[in-house]
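Workshop exercise sheet. Pairs work together: one partner reads the sequence aloud, the other fills in the structure field after running the prediction. Swap roles for the next sheet.
Pair: D.N. / O.F.
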Amino acid sequence: MAGVVAATGCSDTGSNPSDTASKAASAIGSVGADVTAAASSLASEASALASSAASAVASATAEAQRKLDEVKGGVDAKGAVTLGDPTTDDDGRTTVKVTVKNITDAAKSFAMEVNFTDKDGNLQDVTVLTVSDVPAGKSKDAVARSTHKLSGDITAKVAVVLRY
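Structure field:
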């Protein structure tokens, strides 16, 4: 407020300092209301964005479950899959190299759910990948790709693997 008083003291409009201080306080109050409204608007937009992101993750999770439910006669084979380090492709989507090892004596296919999480462990995306016809006793590489652009420090984890 000292800056306002000093500025009003230099005024040559002939108004008294009390009137000028009152006008300045009113202007500050008006600016404060504008800032509050802007902050409220930003908070509302952030909430809508978070809701949209949560909806996208929920949709991807439901779709992943639907695809895994289609696998008939699958056995848990989570230990047969290793993941590389996530990278970002030219489209801005997160990708991760997936290596599947078939330890059986016959060719098998693998369906898996790969979860992409942020540094705090919050689920950001879910994708399902099928690696078909992995020869007996052999490994096969594939790439899991996020369904949309992800930002920040993303990690990938295998949630479910079914061998069939």
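Discussion prompt: The radius of gyration is 29 Å. What would you look at next?
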